Amino acid sequence: MNHKQGIAIIYFSRHAAIEGLHKSWFKKKASEKNTLLAKVLIDQSFGSIQNLDLPVFHYHEGNQRGITFGEKLANAYADVFALGYNAVISMGNDTPEIVHIDWQKIKNELADGRCVIGASHRGGAYLIGITASSFEKISFQNLPWKSGKLFQDLTAYCQKNGELPVLLNALPDINVYQDLIKWLQRTKFQTIQKQILQILQLGTSSLFQNLGLRIPYLFINQQLPSRAPPIS
């Protein structure tokens, strides 16, 4: 592949055990449950990009550089752009529905020189595709990361440094326990939902009824694993 013509992905995510320590999805048995949920989300999101025929650079707690989140992400972009790629996409692990996005559309838009942004429901961004000509490191790292203004300011950043960005459909992210419950209530009962319900240990009819879900036989008398298997 000619890197000068290429698109790369930055997968920006700590490993499951570390991610679990930094998340507050659960209050009781937080460390165990948070790690299990982090692993489910990481496995799903990372697995969704393995067959895209795009190089993937995993930036985690062991190789991120910087103090703030903005510095760490901006350094990751700068590193990958320095390899000669003309567009770089970053994504994380807290948006389960990212597996349904149109990757071909994203690649086509970036190849045509347009940035691509996927907004989260809280005003953040679950996917950021930036062209090399639009990237300005200091302005990028100083965006209001982890705030409800990010999507708005990121859109303005892309417009200032190039064309108006292409916007993807907004998707929910899972930052707190309430986000998880709302997402389970409105999504189809598929593999990842089954795995998450196992973590929640929803083994009684009242809890399932509160979620508006039918009780699957799969979860009756099923034991939660004592620890999460490692990921590469």
Would you mind describing this structure in some detail?
It is a single chain. This protein is α/β, with parallel strands linked by helices. It folds into 2 domains: 3-171, Spore Coat Polysaccharide Biosynthesis Protein SpsA, Chain A (Alpha-Beta Complex), CATH 3.90.550; 177-219, no CATH class. Helix content is 39%, strand content 14%. The chain contains 9 helices and 6 strands. It has a 6-stranded mixed β-sheet with strand order 2-1-3-5-4-6. Helix 1 crosses helix 2 and helix 2 (30-47) packs antiparallel against helix 8. It starts with 6 loop residues before the first strand and ends in a 21-residue tail after the last helix. 34% of the residues are buried.
**Number of extended strands:** 6
Q: Number of DSSP helices?
A: 9
Structural class estimated from helices and strands: alpha/beta
What share of residues are in beta strands? 5-15%
Q: Describe the sheet with the most strands.
A: 6 strands, mixed
Number of domains: 2
Architecture (CATH level 2) name of the largest domain: Alpha-Beta Complex
**Overall pLDDT level:** 81
Q: What gap, in angstroms, lies between the N and C termini?
A: 25 Å
What is the name of the CATH class of the largest domain? Alpha Beta
Q: Tell me the overall shape.
A: globular
